[in-house]
Write a structure and sequence with these properties.
Order of helices and strands: HHHEHEEEEEEEEEE
Structural class: alpha+beta
Largest sheet: 7 strands, mixed
Distance between the termini: 86 Å
Shape: elongated
Number of domains: 1
Mean pLDDT: 84
Low-confidence stretches: none
Radius of gyration: 23 Å
């Protein structure tokens, strides 16, 4: 019996010493909190509704009809009064990317998805971002995020496709989050 107790005491002592001397000093892994942040849960609670992009549609319906034109983008600071209510809730998921050029349509018919192409100013290292799409009324908020895992693909452009079922006739506004600002542009659905 005494050897069993001595073995347990030695094991606990050795284990405690190893844990105290060789433990890594890094932030704990919190998968639940990380998944809530990566999914934009705070934006959902503020009234933004997530919706899918149009990549699940048939390829023939996704293809933009016509050529894309450069989009006039307005730079909006995160502390601008028009967005200050909810902009602190935007998760910081960027890689430092900035939009070098955005091309899209000024107006579309109601039966086609809205298409735009973002050409990125890439930091180093850069992976093609995944996009979180949120909608509130006629405003679409797009939050790019670095992939959690996967291949290290360095592409310099991303397509945005908004399905036609989310586009009512009228003027729509798109807000694209980048590392330093919100990029705002509008388009019309006929």
């Amino acid at each position: 019996m005494k050897w069993i107790i001595l073995t347990i005491v030695l094991y606990v002592t050795l284990h405690t010493w190893i844990m105290q001397t060789h433990r890594k000093e890094e932030a704990p892994n919190l998968p639940y909190e990380e998944s809530r942040e990566r999914g934009g849960h705070a934006l959902r609670e503020a009234g933004w509704q997530p919706f899918p992009n149009a990549f699940a549609m048939e390829p023939s319906a996704r293809r933009p009809a016509g050529s894309l034109d450069p989009v006039a983008v307005e730079a909006v600071a995160f502390d601008d009064p028009s967005v200050a209510e909810w902009s602190p809730l935007i998760p910081d998921l960027s890689q430092g990317e900035e939009a070098r050029r955005i091309e899209g349509f000024a107006s579309i018919s109601g039966d086609r998805p809205y298409a735009a192409r973002i050409v990125w100013e890439k930091p180093d290292p850069f992976r093609a971002p995944q996009m979180l799409f949120f909608r509130r009324d006629n405003t679409v908020l797009i939050v790019p995020r670095a992939p959690a895992r996967g291949r290290d693909r360095s592409v310099d452009e991303t397509w945005i496709l908004i399905p036609p079922e989310f586009l009512e006739p009228g003027t729509h506004e798109i807000l694209l989050v980048t590392a330093s600002q919100l990029n705002r542009w509008t388009f019309t659905v006929e």
